[in-house]
Write a structure and sequence with these properties.
The chain is 56% helix and 0% strand. The longest helix is centred in the C-terminal third of the chain and has 21 residues, at 40-60. It has one domain (6-60). It is built from two helices and no strands. By secondary structure, the protein is mostly helical. The chain is flat.
């Protein structure tokens, strides 16, 4: 989530507290909710790519 989107940040933190499974919230510093800032969306896609890689590697054994 974008670090400059305080409302969405609070909502996601509240949702994370309610989760009973392993999870990670990744905040892109200085980004808004649409990740329009230079490099922000690249950070989001890299974190998502790494998460998928880790999850599929773990699932595949």
């Amino acid at each position: 989530m974008g670090g400059r989107d305080q409302h969405v940040l609070r909502l996601n933190e509240e949702a994370a507290r309610r989760l009973h499974v392993p999870h990670t919230l990744h905040v892109v510093p200085g980004a808004t909710h649409l990740f329009e800032e230079p490099g922000a969306l690249d950070q989001v896609t890299e974190v998502a790519r790494q998460w998928c890689h880790d999850q599929l590697r773990t699932t595949a054994g």
